[in-house]
TrEMBL record:
Residues 2-57 form the HTH deoR-type domain. The lineage of its organism: Bacteria, Bacillati, Bacillota, Clostridia, Eubacteriales. It comes from the Bacteria. PANTHER family: PROTEIN PAFC, PTHR34580. It comes from Caproicibacter fermentans. GO terms for molecular function: DNA-binding transcription factor activity. This is WYL domain protein. Keywords: Transcription, Transcription regulation.
Length: 309
């Protein structure tokens, strides 16, 4: 469902007394069924659109309902502009540019300066500082495949470096914890899978597919993680405190002299968390429990052996 199409339909309904579903479908080059879904979404947003059947029928905003530029508060318009601006910086396309322009047309001249100020008070930049240069073009290709119901093929690096070739029906782009993912039905696994874009290569758009019932990805693992995590005790130098704060709150730190802190650190015994501890280098020492300290020592020994040979 495109934001710019919903905004455009609202503006058309405000400008015209009545318009038919087929005329809207022809105007936006979509099916009448899509238009009916858009009208349902507009109704759910609080703008009452009614339909009239028969000759001369169509959609119209209820006559007693008046919507003008004042229907949006300063906070409403600021939030919409902030969200659309953030998306347009990462997912480029005419539809977002047009949506921004149309939302701005709702801003009364006497409130423009105040709304611009508030919209700029929070800036969301979803692009990474550095990283895989394929992310931006892959986002555009996946967006095209989503809109046109086209299969995607790509090479994918999974856990432990296993590289496979996948053919996937795309259903959703997901931004989670600053990383982009594709949720789709994988023909190799015969199931829905979540693929991280940074692990893809040789992405290609293939032939049309008939969409199946969509299964949304599970993105909230907080309850599961809470049962898996334990607290370990680490001693860190103050120079890495800013990085350790990315994983635990300030109340987990207690001073240990002038240069160090003892930290109660949330930990799960897997490769990801061992790599986190190793990333702090000689500025971090695992104090307890003993078996994790011993495993850290073994891993450090293996790293040192690489440079001795």
């Amino acid at each position: 469902m495109k934001v710019d199409r919903l905004v455009s339909i609202i503006m058309i309904l405000l400008d015209r007394e009545r318009i038919g579903a087929q005329e809207l479908a022809d105007l936006f080059e979509v099916s009448p069924r899509t238009i009916y879904r858009d009208i349902d979404a507009i109704n759910m947003a609080g703008i009452p659109v009614c339909s009239t059947s028969g000759v001369g029928g169509g959609f119209e905003i209820m006559q007693k309902y008046k919507m003008d530029k004042k229907v949006f508060s300063t906070a409403d318009l600021s939030a919409i502009l902030m969200g659309l601006s953030s998306l347009s910086g990462m997912i480029r396309g005419n539809e977002l540019v047009n949506a921004l322009a149309k939302v701005k047309s709702f801003i009364p001249a006497d409130r423009a300066k105040d709304i611009e100020l508030k919209a700029n008070q929070i800036y969301i930049d979803l692009s990474p500082w550095m990283g895989n240069g394929n992310i931006q073009p892959y986002l555009e290709m996946i967006k095209t495949a989503l809109q046109e119901s086209k299969l995607l093929s790509f090479e994918y690096v999974a856990h432990h470096g296993n590289k496979t070739v996948r053919t996937v029906e795309p259903y959703q782009l997901v931004l989670k914890s600053s990383h982009w993912y594709l949720q789709g039905y994988c023909h190799k696994r015969n199931d829905f899978r979540l693929f991280r874009l940074s692990r893809m290569s040789n992405l290609q758009i293939e032939e049309f597919f008939t969409p199946r019932d969509y299964q949304k990805p599970q993105l909230d693992f907080s309850d599961i993680v809470a049962t898996m995590q334990t607290k370990i005790k680490i001693r860190i130098h103050k120079s890495v405190m800013d990085r350790v704060l990315d994983y635990c709150a300030d109340e987990n730190f207690s001073p240990d002299g002038e240069e160090h802190y003892i930290v109660s650190f949330p930990f799960t015994e897997n490769e990801y968390y061992y790599d986190i501890l190793l990333s702090f280098g000689d500025k971090c020492e695992c104090l307890e429990p003993y078996h994790i300290r011993a495993e850290m020592k073994r891993r450090i020994h293996d790293i040192a052996a690489l440079y001795e040979s």
